[in-house]
């Protein structure tokens, strides 16, 4: 397990002043339900941004808009300097291949072994990779999450925490520049949740990723976030470090930290 001092050092030294992701006045409604009412945020290269909010506040919709899984009704979404709201699908796909997405349940294929899950993802991303390159990439990804021994297991043989780790291995195997984490510690016990949070920091350092982390887990937010934003009623209502927001004069903001 990574030591606390190392974790603090990682959070202090991994990001630089270069904006990789930017949302300007992004709005999204589903029928009469306005979920996003003008989201504005920017994420610097190498930064871990945590987004908090009550259920239904639009956290997951925000990151789905970032990869075009959901199309924003209004506003600009700029990634790597490109406004994706104006891109053709082929151009959008060129950006998507630079982004990893860790879903809540890990989203592993139940009929495939761990090896096959990772191989499928890598071959889809890099169809010209040789067998040796594929094998090396699989071993490196599994080593990164500490699960080399699970390579030939089926997902049904893995615990919830192990499935999350394999899901993360499958995400990092394509060496993404951005990772979007959707509730990475949901359903896990406190010890396993901390291990996943530490892995998020390890991945940030090793692969120099820029990440947005959607979570209800305040321990995860405190450990992983260089910066935290809080969504309320479809807009960002507060922003800052964990320590600053914990001491906010706004009672609603403080309620997250109780």
From TrEMBL:
One of its GO terms (molecular function) is ATP binding. Residues 21-258 form the ABC transporter domain. Pfam families: ABC_tran. Keywords: ATP-binding, Nucleotide-binding, Transport. PANTHER family: INTERMEMBRANE PHOSPHOLIPID TRANSPORT SYSTEM ATP-BINDING PROTEIN MLAF, PROTEIN TRIGALACTOSYLDIACYLGLYCEROL 3, CHLOROPLASTIC. This is ATP-binding cassette domain-containing protein.
């Amino acid at each position: 397990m990574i030591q606390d001092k190392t974790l603090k050092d990682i959070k202090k030294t991994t990001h630089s002043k270069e904006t990789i992701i930017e949302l300007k006045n992004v709005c999204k409604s589903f029928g009469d339900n306005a979920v996003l009412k003008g989201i504005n945020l920017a994420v610097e290269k190498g930064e871990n941004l945590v987004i908090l909010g009550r259920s239904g506040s639009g956290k997951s919709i925000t990151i789905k808009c970032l990869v075009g899984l959901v199309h924003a009704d209004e506003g600009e979404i700029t990634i790597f300097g490109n406004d994706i709201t104006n891109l053709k699908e082929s151009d959008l796909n060129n950006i998507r291949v630079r982004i990893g997405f860790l879903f809540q349940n890990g989203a592993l294929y139940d009929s495939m072994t761990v090896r096959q899950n990772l191989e499928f993802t890598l071959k889809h991303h890099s169809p010209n990779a040789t067998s040796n390159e594929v094998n090396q990439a699989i071993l490196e990804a599994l080593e990164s999450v500490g699960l080399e021994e699970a390579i030939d297991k089926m997902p049904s043989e893995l615990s919830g925490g192990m499935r999350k780790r394999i899901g993360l291995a499958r995400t990092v195997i394509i060496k993404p520049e951005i990772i979007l984490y959707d509730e990475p510690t949901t359903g896990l016990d406190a010890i396993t949740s901390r291990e996943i949070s530490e892995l998020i920091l390890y991945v940030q350092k090793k692969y120099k990723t820029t990440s947005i982390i959607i979570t209800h887990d305040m321990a995860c937010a405190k450990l992983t976030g260089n910066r935290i934003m809080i969504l309320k009623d479809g807009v960002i209502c507060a922003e800052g470090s964990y320590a600053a927001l914990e001491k906010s004069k706004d009672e609603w903001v403080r309620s997250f930290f109780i």
